[in-house]
Amino acid sequence: MADPSPSPFSSSPGTTPLRPPSARIFWIVDNWPSILGGTVLTHYAHYQYLSRVRSPHPNPVKNARFWALASGGWMLTYLGICTGIAVAQAKVNHYLDPDNRLHQLPTMSADFWAGYISGAVGIIIGNPLDLLKVRLQARPASASSPLPLPLPSPTAAAAASYLRHFESPASLVTGSAAPILGYGALNALLFVSYNRTEAALNRALDVKSSLWTTWLAGAVGGLATWVVSTPTELIKCRAQLSSPPASSWAITKDVWRAEGIRGLYFGGVVTALRDSVGYGFYFWSYEITTRWMGVGGDGVKETNLKEEAAKVLLCGGLAGIVTWVSIFPLDVIKTRVQTQAFQAQAQAQSPERSPLLAAQGQQQQPAKRAGAMQVAREAYREGGMRVFFRGLTVCSVRAFVVNAVQWAVYEWAMYEMGEGRRRPAAAIEPVGQVIANADTFLEQDWIKVFSEQLTRFLRAQAPNLGLRPRDANPSSNPVRLLDYACASGGASWALSPFVDSILGIDIAPAIVRRYNDCAARLGYSPEQVHAVVGDLAVDGELAAEGGFDVVIISMALHHLDDPRGMLDLLAKRVRPGGVVIAVEGVDYKAMRSESKMLEKGDEKGGAHEHEIHQHDVLKTTNRHLVFSEELFRGWFRDAGCDEGKFAYVENEEVSHIPEEASGKVGGLDRKMVIASSVRKE
Fold it and tell me: According to the record, where are the Solcar repeats (predicted)?
């Protein structure tokens, strides 16, 4: 085989390969120590400024400088902390899953920042109603309640006091600092834990789209957030109930001074139970409503962006209501447990009027506090079952608004970062369940035209792939080709003039028989060209096959739930210096520039978007992948290929997929792309 080193894979002199957007984000993560040090110094300067010039009761309108410094200090400090969390998370993920075999997931940075942005927006929007919900939950039903609750009894004076709080602009964000600062880390843990748990469950149990695995994965993800949500909830609730008003930072210092880290995690058991059950129903209800509404789901024709956004808003809102209805009694108990009052002096004040914070300079001692079961019993004695649903109406309104906006912002952020909406592996129907009639798919006329275009494209690019006609090099070493997911052999026949022997592999027996029959009709002996049934991901005997000069996978990655893992397996089958080739299709729309198409992942690349009446084989399509140059570059690099010899070429010919196959009115126009590189020596 000709030495591929002089091929156009080589980088042009004086140029540097482009790094994908995620790499630029990870540059920040890789440099987190310097960022953390800088943000700590910034926050220290900000704290010193406040201690000198801030008045006891600053006016948020007149003291704009204070609010600007406060916001900047919080955000910069949070950035330093979260980048450290991201580094630790990346190391743990690499240790547990070095080859990313569990599932092809959105990048951690995309999940992290989309989760943080959406969470922060949701907190800001929902904080006024959350403030009212917490006060309704914590309000005692009678003055004889033995629990040291921090709120006054529900008298007219107390109601007027609440009204005055809401009339102040500052009250609208009371207690919001803690959840805003903590929600990014919480969402990062939540989405990464949820995605990987569901993928692992589906693979281990060999199930397809299962709502109960979605619920279980959400429950595991919710449980993982306990480490962040417990102190965040405790600080938020106490800040919302404190009288006189106190900041989240003051609450944190006071609790730490009195009890240390144990105080911050008071009520952790009931919080963990609430989050586990709640997030199970959260993802379950969002998944079932998106399927019902057809939001980017399998077998559903895509709608325009406005219709899709409206559906996401509705699905997110409904998911929020279902979630809070399922856990509201637990949330009432959690709120009452965490808001039991601290008293500067035992019984110095009545339980109804005791403040959360002691007077300045006083050492707080925690009053004897009840556990979750005692709180639940006392609450039931106060008002029966109704007490566990007090504030549910307000909470439902808040849940709909906040979660509708939160999911919409999350989907938008993922879209802008080039990730789009990716379904977990559960949403992609296993190919093995529809292979019985897979050969009928290849009988369609447009498939034959597509195969002819593939042949022309591959042969035109053969010199760039380091391939030479065998007739011109009869004395060189034999060249072996592995054609994985070979189908009827389009890639094999296209490259046959450049190789000496071909092994085809496909999971569908009918397709393998068709391939071997075609090879015999073309005059190839089984020693020259032969196909077998198998799956590299699970077949140990096939996995031992190696030493190929060329490995190709053509128009198949979009049918796999783990395309990156498969590309890694294929790269291990090729000898050092051999060529790895992936052929895929990208959507083509003449009215949009290619740079814009590449920027917006829903239009540039990805898999087919077929309607429910499509052929069974097409129902396995993972439409949420975007086969861009950046994506392939990262996959090939991670598979051990030479990034300097990576190439990404788009075919000039446009392939038309008819309406009955694409599920789109008028059909779908696509272009083929070839991504290739050389395995490192």
Answer: 106-200, 209-292, 307-416
